[in-house]
Every structure is written in structure tokens, then in C-alpha cells.
């Protein structure tokens, strides 16, 4: 970082339905979150900027608190980054806050954990209002059995059985802090927090939990899947529709604000 250059962190909320994930794909026709956001930030900065994010989300995945950073020589009030970018962005993407950061801060490498929520609408009839915002599952699910099964995932473990093809991570070891499966009426959510995630890891875990929730598998089956370290042993990859990057944690020294989850039925967001 050059003398006179500032590092700015932004908290981004987006509905990923009509985007080809986070990462810029210059050859793709469908826009990405990174491309749209870099265009807006660069216009406010009056110079080209490059964004770095806490975690790359896949096509169709949403976020309530994605953290990004960029370096710029431009001097702007923090509110100008928020209001200026939001005036230029598509309505599905919003900047929640901006904060000046020290040079050593990095949105990805400074993060100590990420938290995802997978939202399921468990009802016989698909919801029109929730299209692409929640995974529709018409078969009745036993959320208690799903929660029981998921507790085998806690701690530092090898998640090869839930690793998506094409994952570029050098290791399949991850540390999971918590997994909770809860219900509120027709809504079930899987709340999972870990130091980092493998490609499709949450969606593959949820796909396996569906088999437990439907009564096709005993809760102890998930531990057997984990121990096999074989993706073929696990269940399907759940759709991207219900997946949200809920929050990213950083050391207290950075004093980053908390951004509230906007769906009131997801009580777990306040934990």
C-alpha cells in the first residue's frame, strides 16, 4: 500500500439470484457481484479499484454481510462510499456501511470465521414470494433429527465427503464452531459457523441432512459419511436458493460494526 493510499472496508448485502456468484468472470454474459460493485466503487473513487472479499459466494447465493476491502488514493467521507455506491448499484446490491481500516487488514485473510444460514420453506405448496430466497422442500422434515445428526460435524475435521468437485483449497480440514437446525412454523434453517468453508460444503451438508430429516437415514449416518471422506457417500448438493453468507468475524481490534439480519423469523441471527 502506497503512502497516501487508504484502505476501506465495506459491508455488502446482496440477493444473488440473477448473478453468476461473487467472482468476476469477464467471459460470462451474466454479471457478477464483484463486477457490479467494482464499477460503482471505481466511479465514486474516480479511479479503478480492485475489491477483495471475505468469501466468494457461488451463483445464486445471497449475503447479508459480505465484507470487502479496497485501496484508494481518493479521499471521501465514509458516508459518500455508502450513498454514492448505492446510488449507482443495481437494487439487488447494497452497501451497508464503510470503515477506514489499517493497512494490515484484509477482508479474507484477517477473517477468523464465517457464518452461513440455509433457509428452507418446508410446506406442501411452493411459495411465490420466496422464489429463489428459500429452498422449497415439500416432504415433511424432522428438524430435531437433522440437528442431532449435524453435531458430529463440530471441531476440526476432514470434510472431504462434503467437498465440491473443482474445489481449489489445499486442504479439506476445517474447524466448525457450531451447527444448529431450528424451526419456526414452516421455516427451517441450518445455521453453521466455521473458520472457512470448502466449495459447496454447506449445500452438500444440507443435502445430506435432508435424507435424515425425511427419515431415510438414521442421524448416526452422517458421522459415517464424514468418516468415509468420499463425496459419493454423501447426499445431493442442495440448491443455492436458500444459502446466505450471514456474517464474518474478525479480531476485536478492527472494531467492525455488526449488520442485522433482515428476516425476522431467523431468530438465530441474534445469537
What is the fold's blueprint, element by element?
Blueprint: E1 6-14, H1 33-45, E2 52-53, E3 62-72, H2 78-88, E4 93-101, E5 113-121, E6 135-136, H3 143-150, E7 155-158, E8 173-184, E9 187-194, H4 201-213, H5 221-228, E10 243-249
Helix pairs in contact: 1-2, 3-4
What does this structure look like?
By secondary structure, the chain is α+β, with helices and mostly antiparallel strands. The chain is built from five helices and ten strands, in the order βαββαβββαβββααβ. Strands 1, 2, 3, 4, 5, 6, 7, 8, 9 and 10 form a ten-stranded mixed sheet that branches. Strand 2 and strand 3 (62-72) form a beta hairpin. The longest helix is centred in the N-terminal third of the chain and has 13 residues, at 33-45. The radius of gyration is 19 Å and the shape is globular. The model has no long low-confidence stretch (mean pLDDT 92).
Order of helices and strands: EHEEHEEEHEEEHHE
Structural shape: globular
Oligomer: single chain
Largest sheet: 10 strands, mixed
Spans of at least 5 consecutive residues whose pLDDT stays below 50 are none
Radius of gyration: 19 Å
Number of helices: 5
Helix amount, in percent? 10-25%
Termini, distance in Å?
Answer: 37 Å
Strand content: 25-35%
The count of strands amounts to: 10
- Which whole number gives the mean pLDDT? 92
Strand pairing plus helix content: what structural class?
alpha+beta
Amino acid at each position: 500500500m502506497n503512502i497516501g493510499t487508504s484502505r476501506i472496508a465495506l459491508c455488502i448485502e446482496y440477493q444473488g439470484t440473477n448473478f453468476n456468484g461473487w467472482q468476476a468472470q469477464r467471459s460470462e454474459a451474466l454479471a457478477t457481484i464483484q463486477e457490479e460493485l467494482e464499477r460503482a466503487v471505481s466511479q465514486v473513487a474516480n479511479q479503478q479499484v480492485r475489491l477483495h472479499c471475505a468469501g466468494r459466494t457461488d451463483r445464486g447465493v445471497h449475503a447479508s454481510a459480505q465484507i470487502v476491502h479496497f485501496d484508494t488514493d481518493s479521499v471521501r467521507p465514509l458516508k459518500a462510499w455508502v450513498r454514492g455506491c448505492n446510488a449507482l448499484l443495481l437494487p439487488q446490491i447494497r452497501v451497508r456501511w464503510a470503515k477506514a481500516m489499517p493497512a494490515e487488514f484484509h477482508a479474507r485473510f484477517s477473517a477468523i470465521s464465517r457464518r452461513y444460514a440455509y433457509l428452507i420453506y418446508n410446506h406442501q405448496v411452493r411459495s411465490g414470494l420466496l422464489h429463489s430466497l428459500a429452498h422449497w422442500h415439500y416432504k415433511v422434515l424432522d428438524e430435531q433429527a437433522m440437528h442431532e445428526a449435524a453435531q458430529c460435524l463440530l471441531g476440526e475435521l476432514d470434510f472431504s465427503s462434503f467437498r465440491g468437485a473443482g474445489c481449489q483449497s489445499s486442504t479439506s480440514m476445517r474447524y466448525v464452531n457450531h451447527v444448529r437446525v431450528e424451526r419456526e412454523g414452516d421455516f427451517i434453517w441450518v445455521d453453521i459457523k466455521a473458520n472457512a468453508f470448502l466449495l459447496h460444503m454447506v449445500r452438500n451438508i444440507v443435502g445430506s441432512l435432508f435424507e435424515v430429516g425425511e427419515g431415510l437415514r438414521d442421524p448416526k449416518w452422517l458421522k459415517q459419511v464424514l468418516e468415509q471422506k468420499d463425496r459419493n457417500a454423501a447426499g445431493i448438493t442442495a440448491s443455492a436458493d436458500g444459502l446466505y453468507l450471514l456474517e464474518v468475524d474478525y479480531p476485536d481490534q478492527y472494531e467492525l460494526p455488526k449488520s442485522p439480519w433482515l428476516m425476522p423469523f431467523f431468530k438465530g441471527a441474534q445469537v
